Amino acid sequence: MKRMIQILQLFSPKLVSRIAYKYLSNPRIRKLRDSEESILSKAHTEDIEYKKFKIHKYQWGKENKKTALLIHGWEGRAGNFAGIIDDLIQNKYQVVAYDAPAHGKSSIKKTSMFEFAEFLESEFTNIMPQVIISHSFGSVNAATIFRNNPEFNLDLWIMVTTPYNFMSRVNEISDYFGIKSKAKNELIKLIQNDTNEDINHLNMASYCQELSNVKKAIIVHSKTDKVLPIEGAREVTKAFKRSSLIELDNLGHYNILWSDELRKIITESLKQLLTTKN
């Protein structure tokens, strides 16, 4: 595949850009751990019709005024949060999560990295969360919601790792396939046409510095994250004045979701939130 792309781009950079964009738009389905399957089996579930998809929804805990929304990342799924769901329930939160379009048990069709945000916007007023916990690219989707909807308000947002800019993803794909500048520029054009934004503005620092409808944000990131380097999280924290960064040691991009450190941060943050509200 890589060799074919390297030859093909000599003759048709536009075709190569479309191949790369298709790769960006088709997430791989990752197998769940037994513990993830177990927590999903305890949820109340339903399918929601959205555009060409059936979106799979999960709900844990009793319906009440306190709701926590979990937003997974690209190539993730709701079960990735299995390590923290019981803690949220014990703190008397109703917990809601969805498998994004083309992820988990939702319909498997072509999607984009921003279609999940569009769906969540359409659902937001139905669930009205006070707390959002997002992982990886799920943090971008959460930022998109509040950037596009200043009337939405949130008490607490916990970002478990955050990307910095979308250009780094383009560079990653280009390096992986050996895509040269002409095809890379065509790929950037496709992304800009899809998002209606300049590629240089597609970054979390720009998105978050505009937000005034999130009262408090905590970014939790491991110094040894090999998927998303912590330098990006530091830049986002500088731009997002309502945020603080907690840097953890020796936790990977996915293992952080199962860490005792994260569970402690979440529990303490929820207690502080309760104190400030009272």
UniProtKB/TrEMBL annotation:
Domain AB hydrolase-1: 69-161
Alphabetized InterPro entries for the sequence: AB_hydrolase_1, AB_hydrolase_fold, AB_hydrolase_sf
Gene Ontology CC: membrane
Name of this protein: AB hydrolase-1 domain-containing protein
